[in-house]
Design a protein that fits this description.
This protein is α/β, with parallel strands linked by helices. It has helices spanning 42-54, 75-92, 105-114, 130-137, 162-179, 199-207, 227-233, 241-251, 264-277; strands spanning 2-3, 6-7, 21-27, 59-63, 97-101, 118-121, 140-144, 187-190, 219-221, 256-261. It starts with a strand and ends in a 14-residue tail after the last helix.
């Protein structure tokens, strides 16, 4: 989806009233949570994007730095990691929405110029210039709840009422975003499961998920293989698929409209089945059983 002079600009999200988007994770990092650097190379990252699209991903989320504690990465190096992937995928997969997972405004700006449609900001506009960048580029932005600075440990996070506090924080983020000139149609909210939260906090978020729909905006659920799944079931990350799918099935009818996942094919099938059960989608058919 390019003109003679390159990408035509960020595309808006489709109507998500009765539709769920599956967002595939592609990390160009050597220390990623699940794949442990499997897609760190440029060609490996591009191939992973193609594989995700073939499995039905609606969005591909490209990241160059994880949120978890670690040494800071120079902005120029992060740009070198993510922008070539975004550019290649925009050229080669024109029908897929592209997202950049970053908390740096310069990285977001460069990625949108290369073809990204979405800025997935895990810090809730904390980074200098991020709100202005989203407003200027017209990209959709994910507003995520987190307490700590990225790459910084936050031992023993404390909340009096985690659901109420996250609800208020997300409302405040919406106010900040719209005040900066970002239209509501370009906003997605992420309550931040596991981000500066214990497993008990995240389970409370999941039980109260509907409360985060109050602003009338789509919710992104980033639950795939996370520690809330592992600690709840007593399983390592390699064995958390079923728990992740169960969590997805829980949050969709409670407002989740984007699922950020490692396991695309399985999640697409689970999401489509849930859409049918909710009356949002017709069965693939033909329906011949006992006919």
């Amino acid at each position: 989806m390019q003109g003679n002079d390159g990408p035509i600009g960020p595309r808006p999200l489709p109507d998500l009233a009765h539709r769920v988007l599956v967002m595939a994770i592609v990390n160009r990092t050597p220390d990623s949570f699940f794949d442990r650097g499997r897609t760190f190379g440029l060609e490996q990252a591009v191939a992973a994007g193609h594989a995700a699209a073939a499995q039905g991903a609606d969005v591909i989320d490209v990241g160059g730095v994880k949120f978890a504690p670690g040494e800071a990465l120079p902005v120029a190096e992060e740009i070198e990691r993510v922008v070539p992937v975004v550019r290649r995928l925009r050229e080669e997969l024109p029908g897929v929405l592209l997202s950049v997972d970053t908390f740096q405004a310069e990285v977001a700006r460069a990625a949108v110029a290369a073809g990204a449609d979405i800025i997935n900001d895990t810090t809730g506009l904390r980074g200098p210039g991020m709100a202005a960048t989203a407003a200027a580029t017209g990209a959709t932005i994910v507003l995520t709840h987190s307490l700590a600075e990225p790459r910084t440990p936050l031992p023993r996070p404390t909340y009096d009422d985690v659901v109420a506090e996250v609800e208020v924080a997300l409302h405040d983020l919406v106010e900040r975003a719209t005040a900066a000139g970002i239209t509501r149609e370009r906003l997605v909210l992420d309550p931040g499961p596991d981000l500066n939260k214990t497993t008990e906090h995240t389970l409370a978020l999941l039980r109260g998920w509907e409360r985060f729909t109050a602003p009338g905006l789509p919710l992104l659920a980033a639950l795939s293989r996370k520690d809330v799944i592992g600690e709840t079931l007593g399983l390592p990350k390699e064995e958390r698929l079923e728990g992740s799918l169960a969590a997805a099935g829980w949050v969709i009818p409670r407002g989740a409209r984007i699922l950020r996942v490692h396991d695309v094919a399985a999640t697409v099938r689970a999401a489509r089945m849930t859409e049918v059960l909710l009356g949002w989608r017709e069965p693939a058919g033909p329906l011949r059983h006992n006919v």
